Amino acid sequence: MPPHPSRMLRRLGGIGLLILASLPANAETVARYGISMADIPLTTGQPDRGAGAYQFTGHTLYDPLVAWEANVADRPGKLVPGLATEWKPDAKDATKWLFTLRHGVKFHDGSAFNADAVIWNLDKVLNDKSPQFDAKQSAQVRPRIPSIASYRKISDDTVEITVKEVDTLFPYQLPWFLISSPAQFEALGRDWNKFANQPSGTGPFKLDKLVPRERADLVRNPDYWDKTRLAKTDRIVLIPIPDAVTRTNALLNGQVDLIESPAPDTLPQLKSAGFLVVSNVTPHVWPYHFSLLPGSPWTDIRVRKAANLAIDRDAVVALMNGLAKPAKGQLDPTSPWFGKPTFDIKYDLETAKKLMKEAGYSKEKPLKTRVIIAQGGTGQMLSLPMNEFVQQSLAEIGIQVDFEVVELETLYLHWRNGAKADMNLGKGITAINLGYVTSDPFYALTRFVDSRYVAPNGVNWGNYADAEVDDLLAKTRVTFDTRLQDQYLAKVHQKMVDEALMLWVVHDVNPHGLSPKVKDFIQAQSWFQDLTTIGMR
Amino acid sequence: MLVYLLKRLLYALPIALSVTLVCFLLVHIAPGDPLNAVVPADAPAEVVNALKAAYGFDKPLPVQYVRWLGRALTGDLGTSVATGRPVADEVLSAVRNTILLAVIAAIIGFALGALLGGVAGYRHRGIVDRLATALSVVGVSVPHYWLGMVLTIIFSTRLNWLPAMGAGPGGSKEWLWDGEHIRYLVLPVATLMVIPLGIVTRTIRALVADTLSKDFVQALRAKGLSDRAVFLHVVKNVAPTALAVMGLQLGYLMGGSILVETVFAWPGSGFLLNTAIFQRDLPLLQGTILILCLIFVLLNLMVDVLQPLIDPRMRRS
Question: Where is the ABC transmembrane type-1 domain (chain B) (predicted)?
Answer without folding.
Answer: 95-307
